[in-house]
Amino acid sequence: MRFPYHGAGVAIIDSENRVLLGCRSKKPFMNRWSVPGGEREVLLNETPIQTAFRETLEETGIDLTCVEKTGLGSWSLKVPFFSWTTFFFRIDSYPVENLKPCEFSVLKFVSFDEIKTLGLRPFSRFELGKLKKKIQNG
Hints:
The structure is a single chain. This protein is an alpha+beta fold. The chain has a single domain, classed as Nucleoside Triphosphate Pyrophosphohydrolase, CATH 3.90.79. Helix content is 22%, strand content 33%. It has helices spanning 48-60, 112-115, 124-137; strands at 5-13, 19-24, 33-34, 37-39, 70-79, 82-90, 104-110. The protein has a four-stranded mixed sheet. The chain has a three-stranded antiparallel sheet with strand order 3-2-7. The mean pLDDT is 92.
């Protein structure tokens, strides 16, 4: 990871309020669970949402530009030399068999109870906690 670092990701929620998470198979954060996401392409002058959509396609095979989805908000972390934004979307029907894990050894929808048992990437508990509150509060 290089600094300054600017990245983004997507937390996808299914109709059962489970979150799509993957266990990273590459550094950084190898063997840690996270939402799909990664570093902004500076040369492409990407916005955070463009980064999040590109990384989701690259890491899962889900093209968010072609999928019916409902936006649920976002969460951001900004500290010196590091920024990250996670966008929250509900996708009520997506065939799990169409998922194409890349950079993940495992990619699956997990409940918020199961999330408590996973070894998460740093700051994931904060982003997923914010998402859980959004879902609970409607």
